[in-house]
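User: Okay, second chain of the day. Same drill as before: sequence in, structure tokens out.
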Amino acid sequence: MISETLVKAFVKDSENTNDESVRNRYGFLAGAVGIASNLVLFIVKFSIGFLSGSVAVTADAFNNFTDMASSIITIAGFKLAGMPADEEHPFGHGRLEYISALVVAFMVMFVGAQFTKTSVERIMNPSPIEFQTIPFVLLLLSIAVKLWLSVFNKYIGNKIDSSALKAVAMDALGDVFTSSCVVISFLAARFTDLPIDGYVGVAVSLAILYAGFSLVKETINPLLGEAPDPEIVSKITENLMKYEIITGVHDLIIHNYGVGRCIASVHAEVPADIDVMDIHEVIDDAEKEISEKMNIHLVIHMDPICLKDEELNEARAEIEDIISAREELKSIHDLRIVGKGERKNLVFDVVVDPAMVSHKEDDNIKKWIDSEMKKRHGKYNCIIVIDRDYSGNQ
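Assistant: Same drill. Structure tokens below.
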């Protein structure tokens, strides 16, 4: 396979993708291949468009030109993202890779907008296109090149988990579609005098705009703070639950500072009757072992839970039964009883589905749970904290 051959030839220690220098070499290789391929395609298509007078071919040529520029920006993004942490950026510069991809996305959209205008003008003021066999064959070859570029970038993007390169792969695949449309218009010129070129040019331009919009959405989400990958959430939870003294986890928060730069914090429930030094030792081991295994920085807060208190267990069962009646209420944690005698406080957190519950509804939920609990046990006063699952693991 050509992709694997190129990787073996130009990426030293290619299997060690967790190494930042190896990952950067992958990015530079993808960028260099993209620059070379798109430069050739731009020259070929621009020449064809100029000789044939086809605005659709010219639009497709400049799409390749922006792809070449995007490869340059991608290389710069990898270089800048690989800079070490400093005083102002203690978690490194990994998000610059997302910013470089965002710049590329806006470039794609700009080109799409420009050629939409040009194509509409061609429809309003049509001019003949002369069909030529050699340019037509060269366009077919360009489709084959773009298809391979898509496969190549997807291969490397998956190899190093790069959203930027995966987006470039999708963009290249979109170019296969747009170039195919150009070929159709070029062929149709032999059989009709209608301004097919302009109409196909509009279709190509709109496809470019859509690709640009998709790239913006793809790259802006991690910058805005999207929910973490459910697989990562699941793996962290599963690894924590392998430790015998950890009985439950909650409040998992994951921050993404670029690929390979995830910082996570979580609360781990542990039995309250175990010596605190023994618990601390297990928690320290868990932080170190899971961080190394998953290539993240994990911080664990331990929450002591009374597992043998009969009154507490009965209260927990009652509360869980109450919240089970409402779909938006997911679970409870950090339950404790404060006070003595006939009047006691039940203090706990309720996890809600953020997609179903706004902050304005928090007080109503607290009052409803407290009211339902008082119907069953008048001696309890519920002091509730509304908690939201920021892991997206609903």
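The CA atoms of residues 126 and 302 lie 72 Å apart.

User: Thanks, on to the next one.
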